[in-house]
């Protein structure tokens, strides 16, 4: 089982490649969804890393896949150009899930 990166940033892709993680760089929603579908279909990929900007292109689809996909793990990763605070995003997800503001 291996990791796979779907990134909107060449720098992130190069950095991951240096540690042995293959990936693709996409900038549009359709290209992102195609790359995601290809990664989901590959039986050798266990963990799909996706940059924050790409997750923001299709948040509902990513959430649905996370809830229904039992054999793949999708992990949102910030890149050096990202402005989103991951801690705040996690707080928001938990608050929505349990209905209590943290």
Could you describe the 3D structure shown?
The model has no long low-confidence stretch (mean pLDDT 87). Helix 1 links the parallel strand 1 and strand 2 (22-25). This protein has a 4-stranded parallel β-sheet, sandwiched between helices. The protein starts with a strand and ends with a helix. Helices cover 48% and strands 22% of the residues. The chain has one domain (2-98): ATPase, V1 complex, subunit F (Rossmann fold). The protein is an alpha/beta fold and 102 residues long. The protein is globular.
Q: What fraction, in percent, of the residue positions are helical? A: 40-55%
Structural class: alpha/beta
**Second rung of CATH, namely the architecture:** 3-Layer(aba) Sandwich
- Poorly predicted regions: none
What strand order characterises the main sheet? Answer: 2-1-3-4
Task: Determine the mean pLDDT.
Answer: 87
Q: List SSEs in N-to-C order.
A: EHEHEHHEH
Identify the CATH class.
Alpha Beta
The domain count comes to: 1
How is the quaternary structure best described?
single chain
Major sheet summary line = 4 strands, parallel
- At the fourth level of CATH, the homologous superfamily is ATPase, V1 complex, subunit F
How many helical stretches? 5
- Rg over CA atoms: 14 Å
As for the CATH topology, it is Rossmann fold
- Percent of residues in beta strands: 15-25%
Termini separation: 36 Å
